[in-house]
Write a structure and sequence with these properties.
The protein is an alpha+beta fold. It has helices spanning 50-72, 91-98, 101-110, 181-188, and strands spanning 5-18, 21-37, 78-85, 118-123, 130-136, 147-151, 161-170. Strands 1, 2, 3, 4, 5, 6 and 7 form a 7-stranded mixed beta sheet that branches. β1 and β2 (21-37) form a beta hairpin. It starts with a strand and ends in a 10-residue tail after the last helix.
Length: 198
Amino acid sequence: MPVEIRRTLTLVQTTHKEGWKEVAEPTTLVAAMAIIRNPWFGRGHVEDLGPEIREHGPVLGQMLTDMILTVTGDRLEGYGKASVTGIGGENEHGQGLTHSLWFGNRYREAVGAKSYLVFSNTRGGPGTALVIPLMHKDDGGKRSHYQTIHTVIPDAPADDEIVVALGASIGGHPNHRIGDRYADLREMGHDVDNPAGV
């Protein structure tokens, strides 16, 4: 079943002042979103989601990546992904599309990233919050780039839809001053080569 793309949206937000202080280099957040027909809608429990994942993932991954790069060019620093599955589907449907390498590798390879894509997936009706977490594309321990894009689409997803999204940042979060994971790890006597601290 070919991908049925119903709408695409791009959100661009630039912050110039945060917390009573000008931002030395304004931070730009970008969200690229596609509202698609859920390919598993109305089919009951589908045991193998693989065929649709392999068919939809590359198309959506490439399209959303192109939408992001149209705004950021080669200045992209932070990245992430998210989905909201309509009530007529399962959370596993959005997860299936976004957690697949068929989807994410289009973005990762296009920006030369070294870290994994952070994510959020939820299920809800029109106006459900779409939350796209971000982290640095090359360094999972660089706390300056931990930030989140929050938005809603008032009339999506419908019961038979999934909102699939990629997020990006140019710059870290505004007026960053909470240090990084590596300083914490050193202070706590942990291995700085293991940003997870485990």
